[in-house]
């Protein structure tokens, strides 16, 4: 094992800590990835990669051996980590020629992992959330023995620390430590590790007074960063975040996405990996009173309109001005049926950003295959209100037929379509038609086959006041279940 360790030290000293290729990969199954920011960043820096068929397979279970590789890639960088070898089997079921032998041996010698009591590691087995969090804490500098990450109730100690420092931030649902970790969850936890602060321990001392010996064991303390890398992760704080120590070519700053939502902007060297919107504090898909925003944010005092920014499809709109976020305002509203309204609250400066993203309906008029000069794209013809400065092309590998009804979003900020998806189709006999003759903005609803469908703010097609009861109609729904297009079936 001494030969193995000397090889590791030589590699770390003579090679760059991180040797990576820039640019987030466009996986063939990108639409199935929940944690796109995490997957993009982790794949861009070479910590984890996709499969030879171009897919990422986000829900595939992570194995114990693959987890060891991720840890080594995080600490050493993929180039250095790939050169790791083991001159002796680290565990009796991990021979020196095993795919993950070098990674497992490194993690074993650095105290990041431990095997089973029978001397095995079981590299092909899945590992729990607790086990992976323990490995990430080890990478951050936490000592398993000192922190109680071994022995009885080790998982409780791991969970307390990992959740406290935010390694599960942005996880959909609650963290379940006994559940097997999948590939995209591993990316999320690893991304959170990049922005977590590293720790170190002072040397332990022993003092003897008479016949009494006192051992002073220090607790984990934040690692100090006074170098040039301080501030690579959001802002300078004098502390050493993981990425500031091991990924000196990686940086993230605060910015905004194409819909003006607060976002993380990741770069590798000078090349942009991507821009990823923050998770909203509040989300609505119908109109919401200002007083409800106040209540849902749990505010104790009003926020001045001067500290409120409002954007519709990425730009400021005079029809939706910034207003005081105050307790009693039930007259002013934001959003509407089928409008994604997100609220972002910045506790540091007590400010609010409200963004509204409309869903529009259109049809596919052309599908163009990819060439060596241009990616595949579709041409969309608006069926409802057309956004200003409309450009009708959208790059996508998804398959559509001509004349398909689709839902699309549009950024007025970037003057381009941001997403295209098939609309859900419903056919049947209208039994109830509700409409408003006094309020043109309140389009009301139709009941078809016993189900009531409310109208989206951007509904198009047949005017609801012209719909005949007991006649057959086809309606199309947006992604929130609102009716966005209505057409009468031919007899």
Q: What oligomeric state do the depicted chains represent?
A: single chain
Count every helix, treating DSSP H or I runs of 4 or more residues as helices: 11
Strand content: 25-35%
Low-confidence stretches: 1-23
The total beta strand count reads 23
Category from helices, strands and their pairing: alpha+beta
Overall pLDDT score: 90
Computed over alpha carbons, the radius of gyration is: 28 Å
Question: Could you describe the largest sheet, including whether it forms a barrel?
Answer: 5 strands, antiparallel
Helix content: 10-25%
> Outline, from the CA principal axes?
globular
Strand line-up across the major sheet: 16-15-14-17-18
Descriptive keywords:
alpha+beta; five-stranded antiparallel beta sheet; globular; single chain; 11 helices; five-stranded mixed β-barrel; 27% strand; 491 residues; disordered N terminus
